[in-house]
Amino acid sequence: MESNRETIVIVDDDMTSLTMGSHILDTDYDVTPLASPVKFLGIIDKLNPDLVLLDIEMPEMNGFEVLKRMKANPRFADTPVIFLTSKNDVASELEGFELGAVDYVSKPFSPPILLKRIANQILIMHQKRDLLASQSKLKDYADNLEEKVLEKTWDLLDLQNAVLTTVSDLVEFRDKLTGGHILRTQLYLKALTAELVKEGIYRNETADWDMSLFISSAPLHDVGKIAITDLILNKPARLTPDEFEIMKTHVSAGIDAIKKIMAHTKNHAFLTHALLVAGTHHEKWDGTGYSTGLKEFNIPLEGRLMAIADVYDALISVRSYKKAIPHEQACKIIEESSGTSFDPVLVGVFKAVESEFNTIARMYSA
After folding, report:
1. Residues 116-140: tens digit of each pLDDT
2. Distance, CA of 128 to CA of 130 (rounded, Å)
3. What residue ranges define each of the domains in the chain, with the CATH number in brackets?
């Protein structure tokens, strides 16, 4: 009878750590302790671990080299590895994360902390598998959309819920550096448009808008990031100029993805907004943005609104290459960018609701 429990391998030349780790984990997991990293690599196919606890300093081969060899094997490239260490060495931790480790645990073990760290990674692993399965289904759907439409007619609500829920979850999962970004930017956009309507600003441009459909389109603004490699999307450092050029292609990739869906269904009113948001939220008022260098009122209002929401959230959020900045400083940057990056009229709208932005950021911080 097959076990439904996850398999955890502990690789450590310290017998005390092996014994203690096995004792802590064997109630909840199938545990295999190994004192030799070389032996571990030799039988990894047979063990097929769901997670590996890996000591860094071992005489035969250090943990960094073991991790490199695991990552070189497609079968185990995504197997979560938690490093074990008895030292507080920031440089070593950074090296481990850059190689692909998911966490560090200090020795001697604290049983509750060890169990919690492992449980978190097991949960992420299951979520990742579910999301990848959804991504595969979504790709199959896109590739065979015309055939599927003939088999089953989707009404607007079915399409909206399926696309928004699946795709926005996939984007959030792929981009590990921007947790909560999709929800927050949607709420910022809601605050901006509510004030826009209240003040009667750009009334002609919004006269035929269904505001609920516009707000619901916001989660697709970064849909093109699905096409960006993890090496760039989740790089733990500032992107090089060449890497940034690749990152910028998420705009055209997003446009292509949305157009492909629109081409195969008549019920796509909300995708019209999504197309404009995804395609123009990185344009700047003075024409220096991307991907087409649109200027001033040539930038659709959807993109001009999302630009403010997107930049504000980036400023107040932690990134691998920067710290979060305070709300007040973010507001000052946006106000100083009036007429260059942002529509001056919309900056005025932002100033009227900036306290709401601050509340949203605090309530839904990652």
Report:
1. 999 998 888 888 888 777 777 777 7
2. 5
3. 7-122 (3.40.50.2300), 152-363 (1.10.3210.10)
